[in-house]
Amino acid sequence: MTLAPPVKRQLWAILGFAVVVLAITASLRSDYFELVLTQVLLWAVLSLAWNILCGYSGYFSFGHAGFWGLGAYTVALGLVQLNLSPWITIPLSAIVGGLAGALIGFPTFRLRGHYFALAMLAYPLATLYVFQWLGYQEIPLPMKREAPALFMQFDNPRVYVVLALGLLVMSLLISLRVENSRFGMSLLAIKQNEPAAEAAGINTWRWKMLALMLSGALAAMAGGLYAVVLLVVTPEAVFGMLVSAQALILALFGGVGSLWGPVIGAAVLVPLAEGLNAELGSVLPGIQGVVYGIAIIAIILWAPEGVYWRVRDRFAKRRPQPAAAPMPMPVPLAPRPRQATAAAGRDLLVLRDVGIAFGGLRALDGVNLTVPEGGLYGIIGPNGAGKTTLFNVINGFLAPQHGTITFGGESILGLRPNQVCRRGVGRTFQVVRAFPRMTVLENVTVGAFIGAPDDETARRMALTALDRVGLSARANALAGGLTNRELRLMELARALAPQPRLMLLDETLAGLGHDDLDGILGAIRRVRDDGVTVLIIEHTMHAMVQLVDHFDVLDHGRLIASGAPDTVVRNPEVVEAYLGKKWAQQVTEAAK
Amino acid sequence: MPFSLVDFLQALAAGILVGSAYALMCIGLGIIFGAMRVINFAQGDFLMIGMYAAFYLATGAGLSAFFGPSVGPIVAAFLAGPIVFALGWLLHQFVVARVTGAGAAQIEGAGAYGQIITTLGISLILQNGGLIVFGSTPTGIRTPLSRQSWEIGEILLNKGRCVSFLVAVGLAIAVYLFLGHTRHGKGLRAAADNSQAALYMGIDVDKAHRIAWSLGVGITAVAGGLIAGSQSFQPYTGFDFVIVMYAGVVLGGLGSIMGAFWGGLLIGVVQQMSTLVLPYQLQNTAIFVVFLLIIFLRPQGMFGRLSERT
User: What is the complex's ipTM, to 2 decimals?
Assistant: First the structure.
């Protein structure tokens, strides 16, 4: 396997970091400092575990103490009640943590934002009281004098440093692997725009669950080793709010969503807190907490996104921008044998009597629509006619209350958006949903994952799609800095990348100037010429008349007309929907 | 049934009386969350400051001597409000405003990272500063009312809690009127509903935030002052109430201030009723279970609304 240069650089950095830690522990002359160093490493693991879920996917957890505590109790109770060695129970706690992640994630991922974060807060605190009630107030780990090494009990505290370092290096490697795979990229896409990720075919549910389970497993292992090091476990110490807070303070302080942020946070803050405790805690109890509080506030005001990003931005500014990496030429993929050519003219998408109401508002009212394969199909309608709702029903964001929807002869009713996308339905959004902190190429690559067996193929498919819409030159630009026209093209490429059979374009032409319009119209026609069926919705007539082969008109949730563009625009009902009754009468009279 | 009807009514009454103080502190948190969308981890510590402020006003400043041991602590609880309001105002001006509102709009996640660290930091400073200033010995405000009860049939109603119930409900109504009928209140609600639109309508959103923050911690402090008459406290007490407050606010619907009132009240009732069927240690677990149930069954809460566009 060949590694990308940044990955190679990170591997060297991890190796260097491990060597430095070993050198430090070799030079330390006191058991106390060894203990502090061990704690730095273990908290770094917890924070890194937190970062896998929260840093990449953006789902904040205020409750990682739950995993840490379960790990600690797995080890403590395993030793006390079953005489199991931590050598067995620490790996076992990874399974416990992973299962807990699955159990928690299953209901909790229905929530977003603050609700998710607050629900996570409740789990460890509820568990804390249950453990107290069960009578596990304080579990000391018994000494095993006959075979200490077998039970991970060592006189030399350096052994614990090495063990904790091993766990941290493993976590760093896992994070690195996540960061540079479709796993991490999917999580980043979820963080930046979850509906867009789902519509681009990413199984958001699956990746979120995997992230939480992985995160829980690592946090539980760190908690387990922590129990071995501290030799006593209490519910407050392992399930308490301070543990959850520590996990996120270290990561937020060091830099969220980066490999080294949590490590920086732990390396600075853990010794700081310990030092303050030792130096000031005995003089004036409480002063150490005040100083620590002031310190974290002061630093976060200086670096609101964390130390790592602040320092990196500083260096990036000083260093001249590296010349853009040479773009590999898009490799044209072997044209897929399309059913399209064989089946041109056959019905691709069929809606029968589809209806949905929001309260008293009938957004869609018995819609019958048949889109044949091949060609450019338009749906127009005034604002509020139900156009976007129609797309949301087709691609699975909304479930219709009645009616059937078939695609390529199979029902797609009740499928999640990513499953609909996998069947070959791509879509764009009325308000462009980009992943602003990713490059154009990365944005499109995310869309290509479903059509690609491996990440490299996905990249090539993305390049091909960018080439088709004429955006290859901007492949390395950040999506956040694109013009409206480029954003529309990028979204088009993202939907095109997995080579769908049907594209749903939601007001792609809205808000574009005359010159921009021509570029987009050209790109849409090229998509059609590639054999992709295009269904486009608009509320402006004139651009559509030039573009599409066939029109349907939607008004107040009903289809009121259908046919070739020039006949539809003369339909009095259509004119009435657009211009009101008075105009409709004039048109009718003029026609006489 | 493992309990009698009298037990049931007794627990219900106790729940409503305790819940009224919870309801008041939830309103405080609800105002802050509603207006600023900031998760304030320090809210419990402002509650604790309110307890100590009421304690020193009642004893040190002689309010109990002046108004008598029954009325004095109530007046002290009221006065704790403005004191913590002022503290909140300063903290917002110099710290919180740097990571919220317009100042944070350009930062990734609208400054959420900085907000979490900042409120956690404030929490640490208040707790440990409290430890330095007030000491770690648990203390309480002695009032004769907390040892007397009214009897309705077989049900005992603690006089101290009844008075605090009336005060809490009265203050909640006052807040409701303030938000609905004054210029500042309306601006605050507008900023809560859509801060961008409020900004365009000429509302000074940062100022509305400052009022919301200070008012929120002030009201919670009054609730703390009321509770201080019936239970002992120390500098770390605030944390016990953080969960109560968040559960209440989520229950009512994040962003709905009157929802926060009913949510807090319900939490009090759940907490007291759970003692009928659960061991005492699991009282708080019952709160979490209700909290999680509400989040799953009706994430928008009792009075909240969900709005999301695709």
Answer: 0.84
